[in-house]
Amino acid sequence: MVVPMRASTEPAPRAVAGAPVVDIKGLSLTYEAADGPVYALSNVDLQIAEGEFVSFIGPSGCGKTTLLRVVADLEQPSGGHIRVNGVSPNEARLRRDYGFIFQAPALYPWRTIRRNVELPLEIFGISKAERRERSARQLELVNLKGFENKFPWQLSGGMQQRASIARALSFDPKLLLMDEPFGALDEIVRDHLNEQLLRLWDKTGKTVLFVTHSIPEAVFLSTKIVVMSPRPGRIIDIIDASSLGRMRDLDIRETPEFLQIAHRVREGLRAGHSYDD
Amino acid sequence: MVVPMRASTEPAPRAVAGAPVVDIKGLSLTYEAADGPVYALSNVDLQIAEGEFVSFIGPSGCGKTTLLRVVADLEQPSGGHIRVNGVSPNEARLRRDYGFIFQAPALYPWRTIRRNVELPLEIFGISKAERRERSARQLELVNLKGFENKFPWQLSGGMQQRASIARALSFDPKLLLMDEPFGALDEIVRDHLNEQLLRLWDKTGKTVLFVTHSIPEAVFLSTKIVVMSPRPGRIIDIIDASSLGRMRDLDIRETPEFLQIAHRVREGLRAGHSYDD
Amino acid sequence: MTAARRASVLTPLVLAGCLYVLMLVHRPGVAGAPGPLFWGLVVALWLASIVALSGLSNLRLKSRPADRLASLAVPILFGAFLFFLWEVIVVGAGVPSVLMPAPSAIARRFAASMPVLRDDFIQTFVKSVLTGYAMGCGAGFVVAILADRVPFLRRGLLPLGNFVSALPVIGIAPIMVMWFGFDWPSKAAVVVVMTFFPMLVNTVAGLTAAGRIERDLMQSYAAGYWTTLLKLRLPVALPFIFNALKINSTLALIGAIVAEFFGTPTVGMGFRISIEVARMSLDMVWAEIALAAIAGSAFYGAVALIERGATFWHPSYRT
Amino acid sequence: QAEKVNLQLKWVTQAQFAGYYVAKEKGFYKEAGLDVNIKPGGPDIAPPQVIAGGGADVIVDWMPSALAAREKGVPLVNIAQPFKQSGMMLTCRAETGIKTPGDLKGRTLGVWFSGNEYPFLAWMAKLGLKTDGSAGGVKVLKQGFNVDPLIQKQADCISTMTYNEYWQVIDAGFKPEQLVVFKYEEQGVATLEDGLYVMQDKLKDPAFVSRMAKFVAASQKGWDYVRKSPDEAAKIVLENDASGAQTEKHQKRMAGEIAKLLDTSGSGKLDPADYDRTVATLLASGGDAPVITKKPEGAWSHAVVDAKK
Amino acid sequence: MTTEAAAIPGLKARRASFRPWEGNTLPVLVIVLAIVGLWYAAALAMNWRGTADAFERAGEARSAPEIALATMGQERPMLPAPHQIVFELKKTVIDTPTTSRRSLVYHAWVTLSSTLVGFGLGTALGIVLAVLVVHVKTLERSLMPWVISSQTIPILAIAPIIIVVLGSIGVTGLLPKSIISAYLCFFPITIGMVKGLNSPDPMQRDLMRTYSASQAQTLWRLRLPASLPYLFAGLKVAVAISLVGAIVGELPTGAQAGLGARLLAGSYYGQTIQIWAALFGAAILASLLVATVGLVERLVNRSMGARTA
Ligand SMILES: Nc1ncnc2c1ncn2[C@@H]1O[C@H](COP(=O)(O)OP(=O)(O)OP(=O)(O)O)[C@@H](O)[C@H]1O
Ligand SMILES: Nc1ncnc2c1ncn2[C@@H]1O[C@H](COP(=O)(O)OP(=O)(O)OP(=O)(O)O)[C@@H](O)[C@H]1O
Ligand SMILES: Cc1ncc(C[n+]2csc(CCO)c2C)c(N)n1
Ligand SMILES: [Mg+2]
Ligand SMILES: [Mg+2]
């Protein structure tokens, strides 16, 4: 039997308000390796409505990246259903529904930082003047002003990561897939960018899928937190955090409600680990 | 001023007990780029005694990686003095005084995980049986048992990072230079590895230079915390945390002393940032 | 510092020694039958020059232009020394000029034959080599792209590409003369066949060199084939493509010259070489070879220069 | 113990060199106490270079090339001249309207270079036709190895040998009456072909001279045999052809034609008159790069041929 | 929703199903057929004039269809028809015992043996040179420019000298040809390897520095594995060039046997079809050699964990 993922025949409607932006049912993905299969995702069910901010958290190797890649049509599932904005991931990708921030910066070494940030804009055929303007704005946002004409290898690890964030934000996608975007950043920048991201999300009504390893970050940002567990990669808990409201400030992190949600996440995370000393 | 780094004529003694393992005075390093110089390090003074655990924290681009690279003789300073174990960094490198964990995993894609971990052992001429034994032990430590025969691209980001940690630990260097080793790991694994590292450090009396972005991690692990600031890269605060004792458990993070030190680090970090909203 | 001192002392000494030996070897009594002392001197100079050269190449000068100059000096001095040895051995041991003429004789011949050399150069290099090189490299590149773009063609074209890879010059040159006539177009056609395959193979290898997330990034932009090619895969393939351009720059020249052995009008570097060999004018043959070496090296150098500019980001330029 | 002799031929194994192969196969060399190693030549082999480098004791070469080498410092000496006549000619398609040498003006002519162009140049000089491509002269092409330029109409005339290329043109479908040939012999510009040459200083060594004397004598015996039974000689050549490309029909014809060029006196002794005529032709060829600039001295010797008595 | 998806056991299963258009056979077949078709058309066009001329010379008037048919059977065509080449190949490959000098297999073997030796020598030289150039600064600056200019020397011009010089020091037979082949083919390997050995990214190199690894260790464990894509691209080019080199090398050794000798003889005697057959022989040999290198590449890649996608 064949998954007719790419062969969908019905028309491709824009997501209707209320209809899930991401709709996953019974999804599984197995990597066939020489020494046996790896069950990266197993029977995953998940609905994400428009405008939600969903964090994914879980031990390393539990399939977070894989799940995002399936949504982005960069990986073909072995089984199950998946719809993105009401269409197949392939169609969604082809109509450029999302922006993806990879776990590694993936900057092109032959392009300056500015031209790296402008890459998607170039591809989308945006005029040079507007590209300039947008890249300047995004680089300012991630605090890389003054580094526009450097090449990637002349930047520190964290700066490269920020450049890749600027690149994904530059074309303002409705759906953002972010794979540990703030991993290499210190607390202060991270807090700053968290706030900026939250503001952006609130203002623009984007839907965000956000992989992180930081429990406070997950709780601070999300309306929903998905806790995953490895071998096989699966969802073990989905925690609703919308009660914290949409726009939050950093002080919220001391509230009991926040701490309680964080505790639940931590418990879930711990349960997903094999060693609990 | 010229640093007669490579032309040192005096004999190369092993570090005497009490003598600093790393001794830096007036160190500066400037990258000459096409569009002008980048002052990555400026007038850095630092002494690290044997057996210390020193964390470096600071905004991204402040020169943490650069400083570690100078200690490791991977970068030549533009001025100032530096001694490692009483000799020049070059001599220290040649006699294999340290192990370096890079910010990116830097695994060789044509080697399996096991053979990546065994790489330094191969180079040091250690017998095959012992290599096998040691790599197995280290892979167990970082919880990668069962992935020995995978190639790097078959692992998730965090798993790759753990493999690179196992690689550096495998040959048991007296001096460990760690550049954000736990950046891509979740809280649980991170806590676990923090404890393991602390235990290892306490047991073996290693000296550790540790770059991190996490304030709690820095305070939890260190006897000394170095706070840095960018443009030009410099040290703005050195905080003694030896009062917390050598072996700590995770509960220490709730003590007032811990929180006080963390607060001071946060203040320093904030001061080093250009935007304080 | 010691290397610098050694180099700065030894280099003038070696130079002086070489000049002295050169004067000596051309003396009537010495030429053809020098004594063991003479050869001893030559060997001593040789050893000294090795020390001097390795000193020079490890030299680091403070000012950039001076450092450039020093780095240029090494190959030049090395080459000059090779020529010195050649001259001394040929003249000293009295090697017949039909086997190997002395560099001095070649140089004299070169200077005296400028008009002929110019005409030959225009015929062979400007007309045959440049045209054939551009067309051959272009064809190899286009076929590689075609094979990459159309999977069906890939599996058919690449084996066929291998098939034409080793059509030997001596086989195709007469056929090309038959098809395209005696003048330069037939030589250019030979060059096209010779340069096609290296470009094909290297471009195909280069097009597979892009990393996974770099490609995924393009996928996530739903970038089409050509966009991905232009903005990602070709830049990554450039180091490979330049390898082919470099290999071809010398291959094209050899091809054009050899092809002229198989029928030409009475001009061209290969024509001249083949007739002068039979006339035993080996000095003229070597003057043409020198011209080929100069032209080929300059061509190669130009390609390498462009490569450095176009692939500045490659790790091999970031040491 | 047989004495070793290395013979370098001017061209690939074919009936042109039948005498040597026959002498070897029929044991004439062995009878003379020689062990002869025959090295085939080819377009890329200059026999004077081979002998100067010590790769041969004796070579087969055409006299223009040998004299050029002599002037350039390889002191070659002709020790025997089995070929009396030149087999070179210019072959034209009759349809071009060329009937006499005078009609060659403005035509495209295929010429063998590599030292074989001098008789042609001398001839053109005699006819007053320029060869440098200027108006009122002839257009010269450096011809490859085969007769395609004539058949493909890329040239009006090409160089041929009576014993080889001419017959290839015939084989390609031309009838003799559709061709016009100018033999160099008849135009008075013939030069000596296929002589035996050795290094001058070696002739001082009596042992070498006697070895060469035996070699020349045995070779002459081979040539006599070729004259008498050309067909069998052709077969022997075929057996020695390592490339397996020669055909029996062609080689038999070649052996027959070669026989017509041989010196019938049987001694292989160079006729000084032929030599003088060759030198005169070469000196007349002129141009900016003359093959020889002055009369050579001591370029031939009868010492070897005389020694065999 | 239509994304009808049932658990299927992996994607591999799909790939295993029979799809002839995914294998190599069908595309190669289609393209070969297309080329054969074009070839016949070209043969018709290119041979037309020569065929018509030949009939005219023979004084026979023929209709266009007759001429068209005859273009497919010319003895000296501009472009032989594919079946002519196939018949010639059949004659010289299948119908002739492989030990015969008229067998193409025999000649291919002669060439192949010097190709393989030359390729081996060239590969060794190319790699050693690249390793030296990458490690020894003196050599990079002083040797490389001269290596490059050495490659601009037309080999056919100096090959005879090489052969003579090698001959005078007693090196004869297979080796001189192999040396010429090696001289031509080491260069692509050197160029590729120099780039490849320098291609590991700075962090991978730094890792070795931190281990204070010796140059040899860095070479074996980092530079060489990283250079393999470049090496294999170089090897594919080099193996093809080494075949050309071996063929070229057969000329100054008297073109006694081998594909080069066949080509030369074919060209010299105007046997166009024999040339084409030899060309095809060379091309088939080259394809096999390149394919072998490709196979080794795939095996090596697999053992080094390359993604199988
Ligand atoms: N290309 C591949 N081939 C085989 N196995 C793979 C491949 N990619 C990932 N895996 C395996 O799939 C599992 C899930 O990987 P994934 O990258 O999704 O983890 P993750 O949750 O993102 O982890 P991390 O937090 O460390 O990035 C891992 O066990 C990994 O080894
Ligand atoms: N090769 C280089 N050429 C030019 N500038 C460089 C180079 N490497 C680093 N820099 C610059 O030096 C400064 C310090 O970089 P470094 O990598 O040490 O920062 P860092 O503190 O490690 O930052 P992060 O936390 O983001 O890794 C940065 O401004 C960076 O742009
Ligand atoms: C390149 C080249 N072409 C022709 C000849 C002339 N030649 C000398 S011997 C011989 C054999 C006669 O059939 C021929 C044609 C040559 N020497 N070199
Ligand atoms: Mg991941
Ligand atoms: Mg860093």
TrEMBL record, chains A, B:
Gene3D superfamilies according to UniProt: P-loop containing nucleotide triphosphate hydrolases (3.40.50.300)
Keyword field contains Chloroplast: no
A Pfam family that the UniProt record links to this protein: ABC_tran
All residue ranges annotated as the ABC transporter domain in the record: 24-255
SUPFAM superfamilies, per the entry: P-loop containing nucleoside triphosphate hydrolases (SSF52540)
Alphabetical list of InterPro entries matching this protein: AAA+_ATPase, ABC_transporter-like_ATP-bd, ABC_transporter-like_CS, ABC_transporter_ATP-bind, P-loop_NTPase
A GO MF term: ATP hydrolysis activity
Coiled coil: none
UniProt entry keywords in alphabetical sequence: ATP-binding, Nucleotide-binding, Transport
Membrane spanning stretches: none
PANTHER family (UniProt xref): ALIPHATIC SULFONATES IMPORT ATP-BINDING PROTEIN SSUB, TAURINE IMPORT ATP-BINDING PROTEIN-RELATED
Protein family membership: Belongs to the ABC transporter superfamily.
Protein name: ABC transporter ATP-binding protein
Automatic annotation (TrEMBL), chain C:
Residues spanning the signal sequence: none
InterPro entries hit by this protein: MetI-like, MetI-like_sf
Compartments where found: Cell membrane
TM regions (residue ranges): 7-25, 37-57, 69-95, 125-147, 159-182, 188-211, 223-245, 251-273, 285-306
GO biological process, one term: transmembrane transport
Membrane topology: Multi-pass membrane protein
Annotated ABC transmembrane type-1 domain residues: 140-308
Keywords: Cell membrane, Membrane, Transmembrane, Transmembrane helix, Transport
GO CC terms in record: plasma membrane
Stored Pfam families: BPD_transp_1 (PF00528)
Protein name as it appears in the record: ABC transporter permease
Native organism: Salinarimonas soli
Organism phylogeny: Bacteria, Pseudomonadati, Pseudomonadota, Alphaproteobacteria, Hyphomicrobiales
UniProtKB/TrEMBL annotation, chain E:
Keyword Transmembrane helix recorded: yes
Keywords, alphabetical: Cell membrane, Membrane, Transmembrane, Transmembrane helix, Transport
Xref: PROSITE patterns: ABC_TM1
GO CC annotations, alphabetized: plasma membrane
GO biological process: transmembrane transport
Pfam family, one: BPD_transp_1
Subcellular location: Cell membrane
Annotated CDD domains: TM_PBP2 (cd06261)
Chief localization: membrane
Coiled-coil positions: none
SUPFAM superfamilies registered for this protein in UniProt: MetI-like
Domain ABC transmembrane type-1 residues, every copy: 108-297
Transmembrane segments: 21-42, 106-134, 155-174, 180-198, 228-249, 273-296
Membrane topology of the entry: Multi-pass membrane protein
Record-stated family: Belongs to the binding-protein-dependent transport system permease family.
Name of the protein in its database record: ABC transporter permease
Source organism of the structure: Salinarimonas soli
